Amino acid sequence: MMKQELEHTQTTGGGFLGWLGFGRHDDSAVAAQEYGKDMVKQARTALMQRISAFLLDNGLEVTAQNLTTAHSVFTGLNPGLKRRIDRLAEEGQPVTQAWLDLATASDGERDDKAVDKLVDRLEQGIADFSRTTADARNATSEYGEALEQHVDHLQAVPDAGHLLTDLAEYASAMLERSRKAEEQLRQSEEEAASLRRNLDRARRDAEIDFLTGLPNRRAFEAYLEKQYREAKSAVEPLSVAFCDIDHFKLVNDTHGHEAGDRIICIVAKTLAQISDDKCHIARHGGEEFVMLFRGATVDDACAKLDEAREMLAKRKLVNRRTQQPFGQVTFSGGVANVFGYDTPGEALAAADAALYEAKEGGRNRICKA
Fold this sequence. Notes:
Blueprint: H1 2-11, H2 15-20, H3 28-57, H4 64-74, H5 79-90, H6 97-105, H7 113-156, H8 161-205, H9 217-234, E1 238-245, H10 248-255, H11 257-272, E2 279-285, E3 288-294, H12 298-313, E4 317-319, E5 324-327, E6 331-337, H13 344-360, E7 366-368
Parallel strand pairs: 6-7
Antiparallel strand pairs: 1-3, 1-6, 2-3, 4-5
């Protein structure tokens, strides 16, 4: 009887709590849940349509790389690339595969989880191998010492006869082989240690921008997630900023890409001067930089960026190869409060929108989201 009553309440929407007298007997909760599912489905459908339209309208192949790139553009994970694509659209130019490959290459290494897992497995294998060789070398060393003592005893016995003599020679040969094995294991340990150092160096290199020496986008995204959790737990302000060199295309067209690279390094060095243990800077890609200010409000971050902006604008830079002046080199910036948005990705998009506002407002300025 109780089982039948329980089944009845479950079919009428009350569930087990309803059977106990605590549940609601209307369908509002179910309706709200279904509405939420519909909203999520609509958002996913809209995202898929935007990605599909982007690939089809520009004649791009449906590859894993292009899908990943399009996803990062239309979800706000890569606002810098989104803005560059928008510029092409405003100029009436298509996004070619060659352009997209070049643009994504300058964004730094992608966060390839499969590669990370492979590296972790390799590192674990090195650690296991090091422990195994260390244990084997210790055991071989102990065996060799014990064998050496027995050899000494055998050789010290007078008139032991041919049997003991042969046994002593055999033991001596075994001792020699044991010592060689011990040396080989020691060399294997050194090789494993060297491999681990190389692996650590490769991992660091994968997070460094080769031109400026700054952390790249991959490293920044990991750092942002870490600082977001810590600042939220400590109830500290956290601000993020996008910076972009003004009229950088003109610098490249006038002075060449090599001179443009030097300008990027100069701006990177200028921004790095305001960086400290509370301010993190990275090259986001191309002529763009991103900064994270821990413990700083948006106004504080704007003030620091303004200081760097004015410092750069006052410099008189000259192309040392041609002796032609670069003219005034400036940058624009947009700053957002990370906790003013639901996710760090939305805060990045807001900072990028503020940067676009600074560009539209005349450049060489900092705008708040």
